[in-house]
Model the fold of this input.
Amino acid sequence: MSMSRLSGVDDLNEMYESIILDHYRNPRNLKKLASPDLEKDVNNPFCGDELSIQLNIENDVVTDLSVSGNGCAISQSSGSLLAESVINLTKIQILELIVNVRKMMRGEDISEEIRDSLGDIEALEGVKKFPVRIKCALLGWTGLEDLIQD
Done:
């Protein structure tokens, strides 16, 4: 691998770390909803991560969402990225997004078009190098999937 390619990879990793830390330190949509249509608490008993997901839905579209909790930087930043990504999406679109996030986290092939559609969520891809942390990153996504499928 050339030095310029290495530098590009390092820059990308640094950008992704910056996104994850920003979402951990400044989580999006942290506020509690006054009267959520759906809510679910999820946890990862192996590391103690906890998330509370609340959402409002109108005509099958998520109109507002809150994700709050305690835990590691990966679970909390992933929850924040989730919260920022699913407002104004339909349940079907959210389920498709969750499938693609899960594929990315497991290192499965996804098209460039799908990769581009993930936006900042792609910052979580590096977690796949640490299999024990994948559950942390997917905690909110799995909880949201369960919530909208119930």
User: Anything to note?
Assistant: The chain has one domain: 3-149. The two ends are 48 Å apart (CA to CA). The beta strands are 38-44, 49-58, 61-70. Helices lie at 3-25, 73-86, 91-105, 112-118, 131-149.
